[in-house]
Amino acid sequence: MTIHKPTGWNTWDFRGFNRLVYLQNGRTKITLLFAIWDESVPAPPGVRKPGKVCDTFRWTDVTRLGPHAPLGLPAVLEFKVGETPYRAEAYDYDGTLELKVTPLADARQRVVFVFVSPTDTPPTIGSATQGTFAGCPVEFEGAAWPSDYFLNINEPYAVGSPGEAAVARVSVTKRPASPDDVRHGGRTLRDVRHGDRALQLSGAEMIGEGALADAPRAMIQAVAWNTLYDTRGRLVSSPVSRDWCYDWGGPVVFCWDTYLLGALVTYESPELARLNFETVNAAIDRIGFVPNYHCAHGAASLDRSMPPIGAYLIWKTQVANPDRNWLAKVYRQLKVWHGFWMRHRDGNGNGLLEWGSNAQPYYEYPQLCTDEVNIRHSAQAAKWESGLDNSPMYDEVAFNERTNTHELDDVGLNCYYAMDAESLAAMAECLGKKRDAARYRKEYATIKQRINELLWDDEHGIYCNRHWDGRLSNRWAPTSFLPLTAGVAPRDRAERMVREHLLNQREFWGEYVIPSIARNDPAYPDNDYWRGRIWGPFNFLVAEGLRRYRFDDEAAELARKGLDMFMRNWREDGGVYENYNADTGRGGDVWNAARLYHWGGLLVLVALEELIDVEPSGHLRLGSVAFPDADVRNVRVGGGLYGVRLHEGVEVVRDGRPLLECTTRAIVRLPLGSAAGEPIEISARTTGRLTLHLSGEAVRPARVNGRTIQPASNGEATAVYNW
Predict the structure, then answer these.
(1) How far is CA 232 from the centre of its chain?
(2) Which percentage of the chain shows pLDDT scores above 90?
(3) How far apart are the first and last CA of the chain?
(4) In this model, does residue 455 exceed pLDDT 70?
(5) Are the beta carbons of 667 and 656 closer than 8 angstroms?
(6) Are strands 680-684 and 702-704 parallel, antiparallel or unpaired?
(7) What pLDDT was estimated at residue 186?
(8) Which residues contact 269 (CB under 8 A, 6 or more apart)?
(9) Which of 464, 466, 473, 462 shows the shortest CA–CA distance to 503?
């Protein structure tokens, strides 16, 4: 059984970002909530006293996210109550929380601090601004325990003066530590904590410059502000959105969303990536597959799963420096899930998979969405299993109640299954399980053959879904390009598909990419969820395939387009959107594009990986030929800390020391843990020189644009390659 036992202050509580919780080995010790009292709010009919305590906030109340450490504090954001803007700042000084709430405009509202946990615990009041709660020393600035101004709040609270900032300090140590008492790098924390420098307190954060300016920070903030702790299951995760968890009554983990999140955060916080992988995998031990969702209160989709991309993404985050003990645990779980698919989702027995929904076991969750009670073992439930809830690909597809599946062999699912088999084979090889590795390689070869035999439309030059009556579907989505990601497409088919379809502006290309259904599909104008809008997961998965097949220029352009769209929205309204309009690039133009939904940040990840990326094939990919000038620093890969500068050439440092310099734009793929003789791969358009600082690594030949060369010179510390 997986149990997480974090310790420290954080915004752990799903009920709102305004709840600061201290966990002690995974147990809640104390919770402090900040609220705003607005006495100008008119009284409801029949009530004599006006005023309202504003203590429930949603992401629509936030005007700008600020920095937030991945698994703790500091945390800074700006929000509104009515028309009054506020800034909330929370810092952790060796166990002392300092929480400051500041109005950013003139107002008569008051800041309120409420001690909501543990319940039934009275404070000990030493003075108007000091005391203890649950054994924790407390002090206030600009606020006081109530003495002559009282609010209808049952829990212990302190209230501030009208229109003034207020500070609460709560210590789990003997006394509240002042920010002047704790030093960091020779300076007091008060000196270094403010503004965008706040994350210096929690270690090196990823920093982007040039084309990537502000982008890594935006990507991580949308995750860190949504990172929660499930106090029942005792699991840390970063759900799709805190708002969704509020609506579902507790932390809710969606399958492929959470796996993608693990890949998204691994370059900043490998620890947070692992915690999320473990949380989504936890359900495998209970029900034998990863459900579409599972909730803190026990609810889970017992009838259906979601795209099986866990092994692919976990291996991608492990290949640079595998932790074999940890990998062995998740490998056992992923093996179980892999076996689910061919047992339950090959309804017509042709060796290809369909999305589905099982009839048994029967279950009801009446407090969840009303359609969840009534729509199970149905075509809609099978759509939910695909993760593409309302995709036009499934508009006219029948659900077979006997086989529990759609009557449609799905190109996306079969490619995910191929990726799963290939990744499990790599894991098994890493763990010394030769027999398992051989079995999964055979499964990969078999599904690859079936995809190429039955899901290729030679007339149109594209992979597509196949109806059980033999018809090839003409509803094309980005899933048609997943044979690239899975490595199953022959080179000639890959080139034709990219040339005729991906880069075709009547279908998938354009100023904003990639739409979730072809632009010339009748459903594209709907601009509704998976009916035409742009989604981070598709951009990420297609980029993985383009790079695998060395369509590096196309991958760079895809990355640039996605980044530009993301940053335009972030800079204009602070949104990290669930999906985006494929005609205007706007995220906030429809109601069902959640504003702070973590996987919108995959658009940044695709761009960041233009500079540095760990490829599941076992290569560290560095540099770009076609991406705009950019820098990224403090990227965590395989236990090292990397920085990449992309300008007229490429410069890479590792742990503060030079790793390589290239005099021209190039893509350099360094083998990871491979046989000593495997060459470095270099793609470049012009002549150049690569200097590689070895640091104990073996000297290798290089393959430049397909031509093998030897180092022009090499010493104990460097190898130089000229072309």
Answers:
(1) 23
(2) 86
(3) 55
(4) yes
(5) no
(6) parallel
(7) 46
(8) 70, 71, 220, 636
(9) 462
Q: How far apart are CA 341 and CA 356, in angstroms?
A: 10
| Residue 370, C-beta contacts closer than 8 angstroms, at least 6 positions apart | none
| CA distance to 88, 96, 192, 504, per residue, from 74 (Å) | 11, 12, 11, 46
Which tens digit of pLDDT belongs to each residue from 131-172?
999 999 999 999 999 999 999 899 999 999 999 999 999 999
Residues 673-707 have pLDDT tens digits of: 765 569 999 999 999 999 999 877 778 999 999 99
H/E run at residue 502? none
Instruction: Tell the residue number behind the tokens 């500079």, with chain if given.
Output: 611
Compute the distance between CA of residue 585 and CA of residue 592 in angstroms, rounded to an integer.
Answer: 15
Cβ(650)–Cβ(672) below 8 Å: no
For residue 293, give both structure tokens. Answer: 């969702």
pTM (global) more than 0.90: yes
Is the pLDDT at 199 greater than 50, yes or no?
no
Rg (CA), the chain: 27
What is the rounded distance in angstroms from the CA atom of residue 277 to the CA atom of residue 73? 22
Please report where in the chains the tokens 């935006």 appear, as a residue: 218
Query: Within 13 A of 276's CA, how many CA atoms are on the CB side?
Result: 36
CA 654 – CA 642 distance, rounded (Å): 5
3-state secondary structure 326-353: HHHHHHHHHHHHHHHHHHHCCCCCCCCC
Strand 207-210 and strand 630-637: pairing?
antiparallel
Neighbours of 321 (CB within 10 A): 14
As a whole number of angstroms, the longest Cα–Cα distance in the chain is 88
Chain-centre distance of CA 38, in angstroms?
A: 36
Q: Rounded mean pLDDT of 621-645?
A: 97
H helix count then E strand count, the chain: 16, 41
Evaluated on CA atoms 569, 573, 576, 582, the torsion sign reads negative
* pLDDT score of 14 more than 50: yes
